[in-house]
Specification:
Strand content: 25-35%
Number of helices: 11
Length: about 450
């Protein structure tokens, strides 16, 4: 008997009867894959209905009590989660292989075991391997239980036997439901296993942390619907050859998004970095052209970052344009503005833009610092080492105001800077900061004239 197959989109999970180059649902290209069709099961697979019948309620009858939060033992992780983990929530932690996802989850178990029961389920390591890693990380939780299993039914049985307050699953791509014929990590398996874990979290009030792998594009491997199902999506970012790691909240139903926590990988695990600005500015060169400091908002936290630029004459007809930690399209736009509105003939030069420390700047407030760094490198003239630049650059060369400017200026002064370049439109709206000289400018020409 021929096995029936269906075609799935790995981005959104949409099913199609035949292969197509473009998904008709989400519009993604080359994401349709062929997999065996899942048998129709009575009862909806691994998803189990909540006990009792749920009746519709009017809005006035719904009780609104503040969600119960508890500390994880790592203040940086609590910050990203919005003040601690919420009881009964489902949190997805994603990151590249070897970045430290399992290490982070195992480290928080040491604190969680002081007041709760924790079940750590691993589909990638044996219980002995987890024990050896726990000893290296100095994790000695008395109420920490280990389970090396990939079968979803066995995991749910273990949960109901132990009755944990916190469940950690490492990783969702290795779990499978035996009722389905598809292989672990497929669209159907990931959706079904996540649905079962979500029902477990909401129905029994268990806080569930799920570790997910990322694909080569940097997003969570599997269907995109996985990120819609969970309450929080955390990305663990960083370069393998660098010690620092950044935990970023891409989605959070219980707090602010784009909040970050900074960690450093050391011999005994991850160490928290409570002041990331000092870490990112450590070793900054003095009196060297092509560098400028800016302040960006990561959630509600102001973070200082160093933008470096290198502009050199090109030997080719098409000069090279490279950026690391700064959006390349945005960098190309700023180069065009700098040449057209700033009067610098930079179009025939190779241009390299880099953000120190592995930080990614996606906020327009970093535009002015990038412009200043590029102009400084082009003219080979350093800017004052105690100066920072904050502002968005428009296509006509004007400087636009940014939000939370008072918080940014306070952080700039706290780190020892005495001068700050800001848009003139914001000069009358900010509070005076003791010891910080504000330099208001209207256009990038005024900014370059004041510095270079």
């Amino acid at each position: 008997m021929k096995t029936k197959t269906l075609f799935y989109c790995t981005e959104c999970g949409n099913e199609t009867p035949k292969w197509q180059g473009k998904c008709p649902a989400c519009g993604a290209w080359n994401t349709i894959t062929e997999q065996p069709a899942e048998p129709k099961k009575k009862g909806g697979g691994a998803f189990r209905p909540l006990p009792g019948k749920v009746q519709p309620q009017s809005l006035s009858q719904v009780e609104t009590t503040e969600e119960l939060r508890f500390a994880t033992g790592m203040s940086e992780l609590d910050r990203v989660l919005g003040g601690g983990a919420v009881q009964g929530s489902l949190v997805l932690v994603g990151g590249a292989p070897g970045i430290g996802k399992s290490t982070l989850m195992l480290q928080i178990c040491d604190h969680l075991c002081e007041f709760s029961k924790v079940l750590y389920v691993s589909g990638e390591e044996s219980a002995r391997q987890i024990k050896l890693r726990a000893e290296r990380l100095h994790v000695r939780g008395e109420t920490l239980f280990l389970l090396s299993e990939t079968n979803l039914s066995d995991i749910l049985e273990g949960v109901h036997t132990i009755g944990p307050d916190v469940l950690i699953v490492d990783s969702i791509q290795t779990m499978y439901n035996g009722d389905l014929t598809t292989s672990p990590g497929s669209v159907g398996q990931v959706k079904d296993c996540t649905m079962a874990l979500m029902n477990l979290a909401k129905g029994e009030g268990i806080t569930v942390f799920v570790i997910g792998h990322v694909n080569k594009e940097g997003s969570i491997a599997g269907p995109k619907v996985l990120e819609h199902m969970v309450d929080c999506v955390l990305y663990f970012e960083g370069e393998e050859h660098m010690a620092h790691r950044i935990l970023r909240a891409a989605k959070n139903r219980f707090g602010a998004t784009n909040e970050i926590g900074v960690f450093e990988m050391v011999d005994h695990g991850l160490r928290q970095v409570p002041n990331p600005s000092e870490m990112l500015l450590d070793g900054r060169p003095q009196g060297v052209p092509g560098t400028c400091v800016t302040c960006v908002m990561e959630g509600i936290r102001p973070v200082l970052a160093e933008v470096q630029a290198l502009v050199a004459p090109s030997n080719y007809n098409n000069p090279r344009r490279t950026s690391n930690g700064f959006d390349l399209n945005r960098a190309m736009l700023l180069l065009a503005v700098l040449e057209k509105r700033g009067g610098l003939l930079i179009g025939g030069c190779d241009t390299y833009l880099n953000v120190i420390g592995g930080l990614t700047l996606d906020e327009p407030a970093a535009d002015l610092a990038a412009i200043v760094a590029l102009a400084s490198s082009f003219r080979d003239k350093p800017i004052p080492s105690d100066l920072a630049a904050i502002g968005e650059v428009g296509l006509t060369g004007e400087l636009r105001s940014t939000n939370s400017l008072n918080q940014r200026l306070s952080e700039v002064r706290r780190l020892g800077f005495t001068k700050c370049l800001i848009p003139a439109r914001s000069s009358g709206k900010v509070d005076e900061v003791s010891g910080l000289q504000l330099i208001p400018v209207r256009t990038i020409r005024e900014a370059l004239a004041a510095l270079l």
